[in-house]
Structure to design on (246 residues):
């Protein structure tokens, strides 16, 4: 019985869990969502530009983009967080001043941009050659075809995959505590980690884990349902878009 009680006190100390919930809701959840949105926006911009470079016919553009994607996808997230989030200020590149969120969002966004680049590339390259040839036959240049036809169709096709990547961004925000966060800036994991250290119990981390699950599990099912619906639906018709673009 003593062993069972020790396990319960370590992982399921209900008074400690309920005592942590207000701070997790008021501070941690809002900061986690803010970081997620900011990092996702950076990742989307980086991913789209990298995808264009990966598909470029010019080796001077294609190879650097390929190296970037391979390196950022190959490094552990925790190492990238350290190198970018702490490395820039240490190197004197104080692009965000003392704003820790800026460095954290940049680090996560640059990492996720490498993954999103491959998602965008696969989506853009999935557009049927007949659609592209129809656009070109109507007088659209290669750049206008890319901007008006390929990007809109490809973007729509990869929306489920991008939403799935958003779930990974949410989980990646837990690594931001490595950069050091002041009170009021902490996301959910940092709050749970601090409370666990102060009380010698992992119950606050369990509470934070439940919050992550409440966010990510419904999103996971929504992404799966969305992806299934798009796969079973009718193919995208691009002819009206082509005619409008012309």
């Amino acid at each position: 019985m003593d062993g069972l009680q020790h396990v319960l006190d370590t992982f399921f100390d209900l008074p400690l869990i309920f005592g942590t919930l207000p701070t997790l809701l008021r501070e941690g959840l809002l900061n986690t969502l803010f970081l997620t949105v900011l990092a996702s926006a950076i990742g989307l911009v980086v991913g789209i530009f990298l995808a264009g470079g990966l598909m470029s016919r010019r080796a001077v553009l294609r190879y650097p983009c390929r190296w970037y994607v391979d390196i950022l996808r190959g490094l552990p997230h925790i190492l990238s967080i350290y190198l970018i989030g702490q490395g820039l200020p240490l190197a004197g590149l104080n692009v965000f001043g003392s704003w820790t969120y800026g460095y954290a969002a940049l680090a996560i966004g640059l990492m996720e941009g490498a993954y999103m680049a491959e998602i965008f590339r696969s989506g853009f390259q999935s557009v049927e050659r007949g659609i592209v040839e129809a656009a070109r036959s109507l007088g659209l240049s290669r750049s206008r075809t890319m901007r008006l036809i390929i990007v809109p169709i490809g973007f729509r096709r990869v929306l489920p995959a991008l939403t799935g990547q958003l779930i990974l961004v949410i989980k990646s925000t837990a690594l931001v505590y490595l950069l050091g966060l002041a009170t009021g800036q902490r996301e959910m994991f940092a709050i749970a980690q601090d409370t666990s250290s102060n009380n010698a119990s992992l119950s606050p981390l369990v509470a934070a884990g439940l919050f992550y699950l409440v966010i990510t599990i419904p999103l996971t099912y929504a992404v799966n349902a969305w992806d299934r619906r798009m796969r079973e639906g009718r193919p995208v018709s691009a002819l009206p878009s082509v005619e409008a673009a012309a």
The CA atoms of residues 101 and 241 lie 40 Å apart.
